[in-house]
Amino acid sequence: MPSPDKTLELTLHATSKELYDTNSEFKDFQKFTRGPIGRDRKGFDFPNGSTVTAKFNYPNGQLDLNNISFVNVMDDTRVENYRLPSFTIATFLRGTDPKNITDKEAYEQVQRIFKQLEDKGWEYNFYVNAPRITPENAVKYALAGGDASYLDFRYPLTFEAFNQITSYIHRWYLRHGTDTFLEIEMWRNVEENGNTTILFAYKFHDELQEIYRHVAPENYDTAILSFTKEYTNPPFISRLSSESKVVAKDIPLDKTLTSYTFPLVKKQTGFDTAKQINTDPYKLTYDEFLEKEEAGEDLTPYLEEQPKPKITSQARGRCQAGQPCPKSGYWFTLAKADSQAYFKQGDIMPDYPNNHWGEVIWQFDGEKG
């Protein structure tokens, strides 16, 4: 079945209905998988050899994507007019031979992709549990047989390095400001006949979904506060694991890395993640940690001393749902559109269960609307 000669329009925070209505010409390629408790998988599937192009729209920007293989979104039918917070878009890199792409063609296409991202203002996104290494050492680590999940597009791979990294998956993390985040995965498959196919998957998501990456699923309803706790308290066991593997290959850590501000976290807790100081979680390796933990040993003495950032979890002008209003005036919450309302001191602040944002936090907006 031939694909329509039209560009697929994909927009972060559109509803699933808007997604399908905007792309009605692609109705024959729609997919739907019913999930548990209203979590349904939707999107589009295209046949092998697809040349469908797409424009992905996000706050303050747009990207052009070629050779779309599939689009996945997770809809939540429990929430009225649910705004899709994440998109997975898989594309294929293609050479002059549709069934085989040469190493040189693949390398050049990857460089063009990152050039477009850089020109559009995308930046490197340091993931807090990743090892703290320089962009150059991230390449060295991958070339030494380590994980290729910490590559930094600001330090482009040479053609030789691009072909020498043995890891099946290359992965890059990026962000656009602090409202849109992107994880890119490159899967390279060499078939028995020697032909190479490369799948390039873009995983776009918003700020709240990025915060979810730092907390356990059972804490999603209190994601902001749980994130603050995870971000500021030891032990960062995942980072201890990744950094121990780096040090084992005689690659130094870079303890000058800083983070960036999460507006949602700062607005609801008063804590600015950009001011977090980089410190080691423990004075031992991950293997030593596991050994002592399994033996039931108290690990507190092995914790690195690290200053605690000031967190104003009860920031002035903030009130959780279900609590009495601390001050008469107008209040709003990010958990509900057009939520501004007047409350008197002592009124119980409303809650909106199963909303898109998670925990309902009301913000003071002044005594006059």
Short précis:
The protein is of the alpha+beta class. It has helices at residues 16-22, 103-119, 135-143, 159-164, 207-212, 223-232, 237-248, 263-269, 286-294, and strands at 8-11, 30-33, 39-45, 54-58, 61-65, 68-76, 86-93, 123-124, 169-176, 180-190, 196-206, 318-320, 329-333, 341-343, 361-364.
Could you describe the 3D structure shown?
The N and C termini lie far apart (56 Å). The protein folds into three domains: 8-212, no CATH class; 220-302, no CATH class; 316-369, no CATH class. It has helices at 16-22, 103-119, 135-143, 159-164, 207-212, 223-232, 237-248, 263-269, 286-294; strands spanning 8-11, 30-33, 39-45, 54-58, 61-65, 68-76, 86-93, 123-124, 169-176, 180-190, 196-206, 318-320, 329-333, 341-343, 361-364. It has 369 residues and is of the alpha+beta class. It contains nine helices and 15 strands. The strands form three sheets. Strands 2-3-6-7-11-10-9-8 form an eight-stranded antiparallel beta sheet. The chain has a four-stranded antiparallel beta sheet with strand order 12-15-13-14, covered by helices on one side. A three-stranded mixed beta sheet has the order 1-4-5, with no helix packed on it. The relative contact order is 0.10.
